[in-house]
Amino acid sequence: MGSLVEMRNITKKFPGVTALSGINFDVQPGETHILLGENGAGKSTLMKTLSGAYEPTEGTLIANGKEYSRFTPKISQENGISIIYQELSVINEISIQENIFVGKIATKKICGIPVVDNAYMRKRTQEVLKEVGLKRDPSDIVGSLSISEKQMVEIAKAVAFDAKVIIMDEPTSSLATEEINHLFDIVERLKKQGRGIVFISHKLDEVLAIGDRVTILKDGTYVGTFDIADMDEDKLVRLMVGREIKGTYLRDPNMEFPDETILEVDHLTRADERVRDISFRLKKGEILGFSGLVGAGRTELMEAIFGARKIKSGTIRLYGEELHIKNTYDALCAGIALVTENRRETGFSPFFSIKRNLAQAVNLKESSFGGMTGLISNAQEQRISDEQCAAMQVKCASAEQIITELSGGNQQKVILGRWMASNPKVIIFDEPTKGIDVGTKSEIYKLMRKLAEQGIGVLVVSSELPEILSTCDRILVMNDGKINGEFTAAEANEENLVRAATA
Fold it and tell me: What gap in Å lies between CA 121 and CA 306, rounded to an integer?
């Protein structure tokens, strides 16, 4: 059976950089084709070329027996190609039905006059919602849906207009385990209909579970296409990064640290009571992890410590001194840093350059009146940028680039570099490797351990149990806004963490 779409010898050059060089890729009917590679390998550029957002510098695209030198978004859609980005493109303020038909309103003629055919659109929406397993009314406002439900709306939109190839970019990055299983069921259903799925993910266990073939890119070049049946995690890692990745990043038992407490939290309750009566200690030299299900209160706790949400009661002490944190500026000045879960919305300033983002925390910290005043020193920004780009190994053409031009992993490195420039005493990592490749994950884990060994307090929130188990010296499990279990690295395993999270 022929390919649904084929890309031959695709090359894409931007000023000063070759993003893709001679890439081959195709999608067969009824398969899940995994696209794998480190951040910056060229995956997004290749898919933007397939969807018509980018014009290739060289190469050929083939669909429905016809050759093209490039796709436009219109040509891509006409050939049945649909892309679901990691940052979902649904419109929260309108209904499910309106989201599905946005830009493609169905009409009928009455007395020769075209009018909106609401009856058809509602019927068709009901059909595709049933097909993807979303039990919602077409009139429901999308803003009231969960992230997984919004994702299903995106899939329903592709199905409604008979997409033959559906590209899913990091579709599980914000989903809980049950939601991931439901998504995989939908993928299998779509495959049985003869559709081809392109699945981009950094979670190797998912890749092996859902994929049929895998194409691996490295630094914009084509490594090869392989049957998933012939792969395991070690082989995939070696092909992606060209080296072995260490399996654990726990503290060296031979290293000695003073019995000193960095951070003390006593009986902390948020004003909205989404976290209640939380107490813990963070010791020098250790990484303290927070595990639990989505909605357990882990992020909500970190927001309170960082001053992003009001505290009703309780105390926070740093090296024995009580802090009175009213806002995030107070936390920054006290030496607390937060790498947020959602880097695109709250992690960086999307219209600023890499250089300005790297210097942002220092600029705020050195200003006055709550960060409202202060002059920006170009020389200082340049110095911070040079130091942190080198320290974090940020891959970029220039520090003057807008940060949104970087891959997700390099954006995360910029965020980390910004906080490191501010000389934090405590740094909170909330889902630090979300949507990041295995090689960059390893770099971040090494950085976390290095910070802890230097005496900086490290708190880690993660929904990935292997990540928590391989990096944290002690783990607190949260459930319904409270701490429901505590384990040392030696005591912790997936079973007892899950039991404490669900009890």
Answer: 46
**Inter-residue contact 215 to 10 (CB < 8 Å):** no
Residue type, 108: K
Look at residues 370, 362, 310 and name the one whose alpha carbon lies nearest to residue 335. 362
Take residue 198 and report the two structure tokens written for it. Answer: 């392109």
* Burial class (CB within 10 angstroms; exposed 0-12, middle 13-18, buried 19+) of 16: exposed
C-alpha span between 207 and 199 (Å, rounded): 8
Check if the beta carbon of residue 335 is closer than 8 Å to that of residue 423: yes
* Pairing label, strands 165-169, 196-200: parallel
Mean pLDDT of 307-325: 94
Q: Alpha helix (H) ranges present in 3-95? A: 43-51, 73-78
Percent of the chain with pLDDT over 70: 96
| Beta strand 287-291 pairing with 196-200 | unpaired
Residues β-bridged to residue 487: 475
Q: Which residues contact 390 (CB under 8 A, 6 or more apart)?
A: none
Strands (E), 319-409: 321-323, 336-339
- Rounded distance between C-alpha atoms, residue 392 and residue 413, angstroms: 6
* Vertex 325: Cα angle to 323 and 331 (nearest 5): 95
User: Over 90: is that where the pLDDT of 464 sits?
Assistant: no
Q: Is the pLDDT of residue 249 over 80?
A: yes
From first CA to last CA, the distance across the chain in angstroms is 50
**DSSP H or E stretch at residue 128:** helix 118-132
Token pair in block for residue 486 = 């505590």
